[in-house]
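Record type: monomer structure entry
Structure origin: computed from sequence
Chain ID: A
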Amino acid sequence: MKNLALITFALFLLCNCNDKKTEKVTNLEKSKEIETNEISKDLREFISINYSNYEIPTEVEFIEDWKSYCLDNNKPYYCSSDFNGDGKLDHCLILKNPDKELKVIAFIKQENTYLSYELDSFSIEENIIDICIAIEKKGIWEGIDEVVNVPNDAILVELISESMSKAYYWKESKFEVFTAD
């Protein structure tokens, strides 16, 4: 009888430990799905095929104080949200080529691929990248000459050395630009 009680207790502990382990794995998987600063394998493959002469810059290539400009972003070259309002996670990246040209490209998620939109291009000056990107939250934006109601999150491009920013928002199947200084 003592052995039966001991075996029952051991099985109870074993079952509870496995449930917690499964719960931890499930939470980890959820956090990976939620993580918006992770560049997926399918996006990397899309870039390697369609932008073969470009690469994702490293953080050390950016101006030192970029974090003070792109506050809500932990990667100066990447942001993601649902830019076009279809419920799918879209992405934006800064890509560079060997000629020191930068492109800001939005990648709108489709079924099994992406549509890419080249939003802007810049040159690298003095081997330092002085732009960064982040999410500009949806809402009513007020500029000097215009007021815009933006229904989805947008892409903020900070031109650090020029003390200027641009936001690219989705409107009627394309990106529009909103400039603020």
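Annotation 1: The chain is about 25% helix and 35% strand.
Annotation 2: The radius of gyration is 22 Å.
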